[in-house]
Design goal:
Elements (H helix, E strand, L loop, with lengths): L3 H4 L28 E6 L6 E2 L4 E5 L2 H43 L5 H40 L2 E3 L4 E2 L10 E2 L6
Length: 177
C-alpha cells in the first residue's frame, strides 16, 4: 500500500483493452512525382516528422543536367539577340544612307528597296531571337520545377506508418508507388 504522498510525481497510466482498428485522423500518402533512383532516405517507419521535414531524395543528376543545358541554350539565345540587334543597327544605318542618297538621286531605287527589305528582315530576326529567349526561360522554369521534385518533404506533421521504398530502389510516377 502507498500513501497519497508516495504517489505524487509518478506518471498515471490508463490501460484499455478493446478490439478494432486504430486509424489516423489525417493520413497523407506520399508518392514520387518524378522518376529515378532513391539516393537518400531520412526516415523510417515509426519516425515522427514535422511539416516540411526532408523525407527522401531521388537522384538529381538528370534534372540538374537538363537545367544546365537549358541555361547554356538561354545564354546562347541572349548572345544571338545581341548579334541580331547589332545587325539591325547596321541595317538601319545602311537604309538611312541609301534613303539620303536616293533623295539626291545618287542611288538606284533597287538599292534603296534592298536596304529597306534587309532592315525589315533584321527587325524580324530580332523578334525571333527575343522569342527564343522567352522559350528558353519557360523551359528553364519547367526544368527547375522538375529539379525541385527530387527532394521530398513531409506535407503534414505526424508519424511514418509505412515506407514502401529502400535506398537504391527506383521510383516511378504513377498510382502504384
Amino acid at each position: 500500500k502507498f500513501a497519497a504522498a508516495d504517489l505524487i510525481g509518478l506518471p498515471l497510466r490508463a490501460v484499455v483493452s478493446a478490439s478494432g482498428k486504430i486509424r489516423a485522423k489525417t493520413s497523407v500518402d506520399v508518392s514520387a512525382s518524378t522518376t529515378g533512383k532513391v539516393v537518400k532516405l531520412a526516415v523510417d517507419e515509426g519516425d515522427r516528422v514535422e511539416r516540411g521535414q526532408f523525407l527522401m531524395q531521388i537522384d538529381p543528376t538528370t534534372a540538374e543536367t537538363s537545367v544546365r543545358q537549358i541555361e547554356a541554350s538561354l545564354g546562347s539565345a541572349r548572345a544571338t539577340l545581341d548579334l541580331q540587334r547589332a545587325n539591325l543597327q547596321q541595317a538601319q544605318q545602311e537604309y538611312d544612307r541609301q534613303r539620303a542618297l536616293a533623295e539626291k538621286n545618287l542611288t538606284s531605287q533597287e538599292l534603296l528597296q534592298k536596304s529597306k527589305t534587309a532592315l525589315e528582315v533584321q527587325k524580324l530576326q530580332v523578334v525571333a531571337a527575343e522569342q527564343d529567349i522567352s522559350r528558353f526561360e519557360a523551359m528553364r522554369k519547367s526544368a527547375l520545377h522538375e529539379l525541385s521534385k527530387v527532394n521530398m518533404h513531409a506535407d503534414i506533421p505526424g508519424v511514418i506508418v509505412k515506407r514502401n521504398i529502400e535506398e537504391g530502389e527506383n521510383v516511378f510516377v504513377g498510382a502504384f508507388n
